[in-house]
Specification:
about 725 residues, alpha/beta, 8-stranded mixed β-sheet, 6-stranded parallel β-sheet, 21 strands, globular, binds adenosine-5'-triphosphate, binds magnesium ion, DExx_box_DNA_helicase_dom_sf, hydrolase, helicase
Length: about 725
C-alpha cells in the first residue's frame, strides 16, 4: 500500500517523528514548528501503517474544538471513521470514563457537572452551614483552595493541617463542601480529573481494561499538564502503551493553575527509552515576527533551549500603537480590521488578544458600532449568560432532582413568591438531616412544616418539574428544551422585561433550542440525550460557537489563543500592571510566565502583528495611567515601527518610542484631538475623551471639569479649543 501521502507536507524531522516505530517519544519544539501537525499525522500513520485500530488509540488535545478539527482532518485523509477513537481534553476524556463507570466511581448515574459559579454558590452555603463569616473566609479563596488540592490529588483526609488553625478550617470546609456535592450528585471541574484518577487507581478491573485497550497515547500541549493529569496518564499507559507527548516549555502558561512544566523532564525519567525529537523550522510566522518573539522569550532563564528559524519572507514590520485611552485603542484596532476586510480578507483571519476578559467589552462595543461581526472564543460566553444558565438549570432538574445548584438557581426564577426566609428554613432542614433541597422539601411538605403561599408555590414548582419530566421524556431533545423554556415561565419572564437586553435574552434562549437541535449524541450511548447535552454544555461552556461558520473577528484571551494561528493579530493592553499583570508584581517566576504568555500571543500571528497600549485606561471603574509594558522594550527596534495617526502633532524626536508623551491621535472629522482642552458656552471647560459616528451624525464625548462626562452632537456643541 502506498502510504507516502501520510508523509506529504512534512520536513525530515517531522517525518522521523511520524514514521518512528512504536515507542515513547517527546517532540519538543517552539511555536509554529508543526508539533500539532506531527501529532495528527502520527495518528493516521499508526492506523494506516502500524494497523492500530482506532479503538486502541487515545489522543489528548488542549480544547474540544481542537479535537473536533483533528478528527475531521484525519477522517478525511484516511477515509476511516473514527467513532471508536478516544480523542478529547483531559476533562472530556475523564468525564467519559466516569460516565462509563459511574458505579465504580461512586456516583449516581445522573451526576451533573457544575461550573465555577455553581461551585461558588455551594461554597457559600457550606460557610453558612458551618457558621463561618464570609468576610474571614472569602468563598473565592476557598474555591481556589479546594480546586488546587484536587489538582494535587488531595482529599481532605490527606491534608495534614498540623496546628495551623486556618488550614484546619479550610480542610473542614473542603470536607463539608465535598459531602454536599456527593449527596447531590454534583461534580466540579477539578473533581472530574481526581475522580477519574482515583477510579483507575483503586479499581484494578477498570485500570486493566484501559491499559489493555490503549496501545498508544498521544498528548498535545503537554507543557501545561498538572500533577493529576500526569498521574492519570501514567496510570492509563501502564507498562505497555507507547506514549508520545508534544510540547514547548516556552509556552507553559498555566503554572498559576498548577500546571508543571517539569512534567516534561519527569516524562523522560518515567518513560524509559523515550526518543526526543526537536523541530526547529517555523512555518507559521514571518521572519520579523519570529525574530521579535524569540527576542522577547530570550529574557527568560532556565529554558530547555530551542532554536527556531524560518525560511519564509521577512514580511511586514510589527506595528506598535500608542493609544490615548482604551477607547482609542479599540477604535484603532477596529479601523485596521475594517481596512483589512475591505481588501477582501475574511474577518475570521483576524484576532484580537487580550490579557483579561474584562478588556473585551470595550472592543466588543467598538466592533458593534462599526458593524463588524465578532465571536468571543473560549471565554465562557454563551453558556455563561444568565438566561441560558436558567434554562439549563431547569433541564438539569428534569435530569436530576437532587441537583442543589440548579434548584437554588431556579426555584424562585421566575419569581413565585418563594422568599429567602422560606429558603433558609429549607436549607437548614436539608443540612440538619443531610438531605438535598428536593428531599427536604418533600419531607417538609408532607409534614406540613411549610404553610400558606410559599408552600403552595413550592408544591406547584415541584409538580411542574415532575410534570415536565414525564410529559417531555419521549420528545426529541430540542423540543424538550423548547417546552421547558416556555412552560417554566422563563420565556414569558424575559419577554415581559422588554428592551434590547431582554430581546437578546430571548434570542439566546432560541439559540439554545438550536444548539439542542444540532447536538449529536451518538458518541455518548451511555447517556440519555438530555444528560449528554447537559454534560457537553458544562464541559464546552465557552467553546460553543453560536454561528460557527459565519465570518467574524476572533476575540479571546491570550490564554485561550494557545495552539491557534491567524494572519492578522492584535495584542492589546501592553501596559505594566495589565500585561505583565499586576499580580505578577516583581515575582520573577510569575513574570516569566507572563513573558511566555507574550511569546504565545506574538507567535499566533502569521503575517501582521499589531501591539497596542494606552496612556490611560479605565478598568473596573478606575482611571489609570500605566507605563508601556516592558515586553515592548524587549523587541528589537528594527522589528517595530510606531504608528502615527492622521495628526498634525509631531512628537519630539528624542523621546523614547514607549515613553509617556501627549497623545497624537486626532479626530479626522471633528477637528478636535483626544485629550484636547475645550470650552463649551454652558458647561465650561473640559477634556475631549471620545467620539463616534461621522459627518452631521458625529458625537463627541467631553469630560467637563464641573459636570463630568457628557456626549454632545458635534455639529451643535460649538466647542472652542482653549
Ligand atoms: N512541513 C511543513 N510544511 C508546511 N507547513 C507546515 C509544515 N509543518 C507545519 N506546517 C504549518 O505550520 C503551521 C504551524 O503548525 P502547527 O500548528 O502544527 O505548529 P505547533 O508547533 O503545533 O504550534 P504551537 O506551538 O503554536 O501549537 C500550521 O499552519 C501548519 O499547517
Ligand atoms: Mg500546536
Amino acid at each position: 500500500m502506498d502510504v507516502s501521502y501520510l508523509l506529504d507536507g512534512l520536513n525530515d524531522k517531522q517525518r522521523d517523528a511520524v514514521a518512528a516505530p512504536p515507542q515513547h517519544m517527546l517532540v519538543l519544539a517552539g511555536a509554529g514548528s508543526g508539533k500539532t501537525r506531527v501529532l495528527v499525522h502520527r495518528l493516521a500513520w499508526l492506523m494506516q501503517v502500524e494497523r492500530v485500530a482506532p479503538y486502541s488509540l487515545l489522543a489528548v488535545t488542549f480544547t474540544n474544538k481542537a479535537s473536533q478539527e483533528m478528527r475531521g482532518r484525519i477522517e478525511s485523509t484516511i477515509g476511516v471513521s473514527l467513532n471508536n477513537l478516544w480523542m478529547g481534553t483531559f476533562h472530556g476524556l475523564s468525564h467519559r470514563m466516569l460516565r462509563a463507570h459511574y458505579q465504580e466511581a461512586n456516583l449516581p448515574q445522573s451526576f451533573q457537572i457544575i461550573d465555577s459559579d455553581d461551585q461558588h454558590r455551594l461554597v457559600k452555603r457550606v460557610l453558612k452551614a458551618l457558621n463561618l463569616d464570609e468576610k474571614h473566609w472569602p468563598a473565592k479563596q476557598i474555591q481556589w483552595f479546594i480546586n488546587a488540592r484536587k489538582d494535587e490529588g488531595q482529599r481532605p483526609g490527606m491534608i495534614d493541617a498540623g496546628a495551623d488553625f486556618s488550614l484546619q478550617q479550610m480542610v473542614k470546609i473542603y470536607a463539608a463542601y465535598q459531602d454536599m456535592c456527593d449527596r447531590a450528585g454534583l461534580v466540579d471541574f477539578a473533581e472530574i480529573l481526581l475522580r477519574s484518577f482515583e477510579l483507575l487507581k483503586t479499581h484494578d478491573a477498570v485500570r486493566n481494561h484501559y491499559q489493555q485497550r490503549f496501545r498508544h497515547i498521544l498528548v498535545d500541549e503537554f507543557q501545561d499538564t498538572n500533577a493529576i493529569q500526569y498521574n492519570w496518564l501514567r496510570l492509563l499507559a501502564g507498562s505497555s502503551a507507547k506514549v508520545m507527548i508534544v510540547g514547548d516549555d516556552d509556552q507553559s502558561i498555566y503554572g498559576w493553575r498548577g500546571a508543571k512544566v517539569e512534567n516534561i523532564q519527569q516524562f523522560l525519567k518515567d518513560f524509559a527509552g523515550a526518543d526526543t525529537i526537536r523541530l526547529e523550522q517555523n512555518y507559521r510566522s514571518t521572519a520579523t515576527i519570529l525574530k521579535a518573539a524569540n527576542a522577547v522569550i530570550s529574557n527568560n532563564s532556565g529554558r530547555l533551549g530551542k532554536d527556531l528559524w524560518t525560511d519564509g519572507s521577512e514580511g511586514e514590520t510589527i506595528s506598535s500603537y500608542n493609544a490615548f485611552n482604551e477607547l482609542d485603542e479599540a477604535r484603532f484596532i477596529v479601523s485596521r480590521i475594517r481596512d483589512w476586510h475591505n481588501k477582501g480578507n475574511p474577518l475570521t483571519e483576524s484576532a484580537i488578544l487580550y490579557r483579561n476578559n474584562a478588556q473585551s467589552r470595550v472592543l466588543e462595543e467598538a466592533l458593534i458600532q462599526e458593524g463588524l461581526h465578532y465571536r468571543i472564543y473560549g471565554g465562557l460566553r454563551f453558556y455563561e449568560r444568565q438566561e441560558i444558565k436558567d434554562a439549563l438549570a431547569y433541564l438539569r432538574l428534569l435530569n436530576n432532582r437532587q441537583d442543589d445548584a440548579a434548584m437554588e438557581r431556579v426555584i424562585n426564577t421566575p419569581a413565585r413568591g418563594i422568599g429567602e426566609t422560606t429558603m433558609n428554613k429549607v436549607r437548614q432542614q436539608a443540612r440538619a438531616s443531610q438531605q438535598t433541597l428536593w428531599q427536604a422539601l418533600e419531607q417538609m411538605l408532607a409534614e406540613k412544616q411549610l404553610s400558606g403561599r410559599a408552600a403552595n408555590a413550592i408544591e406547584q414548582f415541584m409538580q411542574l418539574i415532575t410534570q415536565l419530566d414525564t410529559d417531555l421524556n419521549e420528545l426529541p431533545l430540542h423540543e424538550q428544551a423548547e417546552q421547558v423554556i416556555k412552560q417554566s415561565g422563563l420565556y414569558a419572564m424575559y419577554q415581559a422585561e422588554k428592551g434590547e437586553k431582554a430581546q437578546t435574552r430571548i434570542e439566546n434562549l432560541n439559540e439554545l433550542v438550536t444548539a439542542c437541535q444540532n447536538f449529536d449524541s451518538v458518541l455518548q450511548e451511555e447517556m440519555t440525550p438530555l444528560a449528554a447535552f447537559l454534560s457537553q454544555a458544562a464541559l464546552e461552556a465557552g467553546e460553543y460557537q453560536a454561528e460557527e461558520h459565519s465570518d467574524a473577528v476572533q476575540l479571546m484571551t491570550l490564554h485561550s489563543a494557545k495552539g491557534l494561528e491567524f494572519p492578522l493579530v492584535f495584542m492589546c493592553g501592553l501596559e505594566e500592571g495589565m500585561f505583565p499583570s499586576q499580580q505578577s508584581g516583581d515575582d520573577p517566576t510569575r513574570l516569566e510566565e507572563e513573558r511566555r504568555l507574550c511569546y504565545v500571543g506574538m507567535t499566533r500571528a502569521m503575517q501582521k502583528l499589531y501591539l497596542c497600549h494606552a496612556q490611560s485606561r479605565r478598568l473596573y471603574g478606575q482611571e489609570q495611567y500605566p507605563k508601556p509594558s516592558r515586553f515592548l522594550r524587549e523587541i528589537p527596534d528594527d522589528c517595530v515601527e510606531e504608528i502615527r495617526l492622521t495628526t498634525q502633532v509631531s512628537r519630539p524626536a528624542q523621546l523614547n518610542r514607549y515613553s509617556h508623551a501627549a497623545s497624537h491621535s486626532a479626530f479626522e472629522n471633528t477637528g478636535f484631538k483626544l485629550g484636547q482642552r475645550v470650552l463649551h458656552e454652558k458647561f465650561g471647560e473640559g477634556t475631549v475623551l471620545n467620539y463616534e459616528g461621522s459627518g452631521p451624525q458625529s458625537r463627541i464625548q467631553v469630560n467637563f471639569d464641573q459636570l463630568g462626562s457628557k456626549w454632545l452632537m458635534t455639529a451643535y456643541a460649538r466647542l472652542e479649543a482653549v
